[in-house]
Amino acid sequence: IVLGPIEHFWARLLLLLVFAATFYLISAIAKHAFPASESAQRIVRTGYLLSPLAGFAVFTFGQYDIIGVFFTLLGVLMYFRRNSFWFVFWFSIAITFKYFAAFVFVPLALFYFKRPVKIALALLGGLAFTALEFLIYWSSPSFRVGALLIAEGKASGPLQNPLQVLKGVLFLALWVTGFLYGRRGDGLARP
């Protein structure tokens, strides 16, 4: 599909608006993460605006990954605000855009929820929209082939690559640490 100039403009404008919204979310998260340090908040905001990955992805290549980042940041903000329903809800939507959001969600959920039953319910809630997406599109042969080929490509031979093994061990350690540390106390205090 070839976009005309007007369609191309609207597509880029959508990306620009979502990028501006993610900047707002980054600013709000920085206020929660560093409430006493305006300079740290400024560094976070400046670092995000000057990030070459964000700039190239949005403005040069026109990637729509920024929409998944938007929902992930909404989930992180709700985590800081201690709003458990919206925390799980926004991450559930983010996971449908990019499965990377699950790697952010799981450690945060382990840290946020103290009881194993609540953790299990949060993880199920986090997968709710992805399960719904699979349920809706599973009858499409092209979706099944595409989803299975992506999964096969990501999973083929991960134990043969030492870097993949190291990343897996680090993520597992992060998840276990989040769970154990989260069970010790109240976790984050609401600013």
How would the blueprint of this fold be written?
Blueprint: H1 5-33, H2 38-49, H3 52-60, H4 65-80, H5 84-97, H6 100-112, H7 116-126, H8 128-137, H9 141-155, H10 162-184
Please supply descriptive tags for the structure shown above.
single chain; 191 residues; mainly alpha; 10 helices; globular; disordered C terminus
The parts where pLDDT drops under 50 for at least 5 residues are 187-191
The pLDDT mean sits at 82
Alpha-carbon Rg, integer? 19 Å
Return the structural class: mainly alpha
Structure description:
The protein has 191 residues and is mostly helical. Helices cover 80% and strands 0% of the residues. The protein is built from 10 helices and no strands. The protein has helices at 5-33, 38-49, 52-60, 65-80, 84-97, 100-112, 116-126, 128-137, 141-155, 162-184. The termini are far apart.
